[in-house]
Amino acid sequence: MITLEELKRCSLSRLEKIAKTYPELIIDNAIDIFEDDWTAFLEILPFLKDKSIESDNKLEKIIGANLEEISKSLLIEPSEMDDNIDYDWDYRIEIAERYKKTISILINELLKDGNCSYLDIERKNSGAFTHVYKIGNKVLKIGTPKLLHKIPNHRRIIQPLLRRELPSSGEGAIYVEVEEAVEPVHDPRYFKQLYEIYKELRDDGLIWGDPKLANIGILQKENKQVLHGEHLPVDYKTLGFMNNPIGKPLKKGQLVIIDMDYIFEEGDPNIYRCKLSETYEERYQQEEWMKEFGER
User: Fold this and answer.
1) pLDDT in the model for residue 72
2) Distance (Å, rounded) from C-alpha 187 to C-alpha 270?
3) Are 136 and 113 in contact (CB under 8 A)?
4) 10 Å Cβ neighbour count for 88?
5) 3-state SS, one letter per residue, for the chain
6) 88: alpha, beta or left, given left = phi > 0 and alpha = psi -120 to 50?
7) Residues of the chain whose pLDDT is less than 50?
């Protein structure tokens, strides 16, 4: 049988394979295996849970007893963008230590809101700036501060409960965002609606620099801030928005933008566009030209 020291040296992919066959081995040694990297524990949690009531109870106790250290790991974990940033990582660890209790309280609140257990924490696909976790009916994003903290608001943008950088006095700041979970869009038939969303924002003076299916989702409820079944009063400026959302809130079943990294005001000198956004802009300008001159 593999020893604890061998388990501690295993790669994540190797631990996944062991977890599928010998989940109890991983569970019984989880604290020693993952004490320095609890994000890896969350990676293999799907392979450990739902094996038996006894093992699930063990996992619940492990997560509950170590939630602050798990939260610290989430705060420290680097994003893709961190490869391009000269961070003071010692300072980032200091920030994570300072806010680990705050994040653990936040996670408990989100679990309570969704009537969920610790085993319902799901690690999802990560973006360039953040790592993403689904907690009940909410999504928690943690990572590198966004390029554009202050952005224009619009009804087509998911309305977050929380969106801010954790206060710090130097390099190594950490970004946290909480929003409603949405149904991912995989069906290519939705592709034609990307332009309709682009056009709607464009008509309201905004430019969507990164339109793609991965950046939209289907709302599971009205696009408003809700916690514990109650609508929350919101100061949009504290969420990093320049304004209140333009237009009436979207309803359940409508498409919403879930990645706010590249929403710009028209005329912004720092506009970033992917190729598709450039194509949409050409189409939009042609349509506007036809409306103005085509019928003359």
Assistant:
1) 95
2) 32
3) yes
4) 12
5) CCCHHHHHHCCHHHHHHHHHHCHHHHHHCHHHHHCCCHHHHHHHHHHHCCCCHHHHHHHHHHHHHCHHHHHHHHHHCCCHHHHHCCCCHHHHHHHHHHHHHHHHHHHHHHHHHCCCCHHHEEECCCCCCEEEEEECCEEEEEECCCCCCCECCCCCECCCCEEEECCCCCCCCCEEEEEECCEECCCHHHHHHHHHHHHHHHHCCEEECCCCHHHEEECCCCCCCEECCEECCCCHHHHCECCCCCCCCCCCCCEEECCCCCEEECCCCCCCCCHHHHHHHHHHHHHHHHHHHHCC
6) beta
7) none
CA distances from 281 to 53, 251, 278 (A): 55, 27, 5
Q: Is 196 in contact with 228 (CB distance < 8 Å)?
A: no
Closest CA to 158 of 25, 263, 289, 16: 263
Q: Cα separation of 160 and 157, whole Å? A: 9
How far is 278 from 272, CA to CA, in rounded Å? 10
Phi and psi, residue 29, nearest 5°:
-115, 15
Residues 240-276 pLDDT 10s:
899 999 889 999 999 999 988 889 999 998 898 999 9
pLDDT tens digits for 169-187? 566 678 899 999 999 998 9
pTM of the model: 0.89
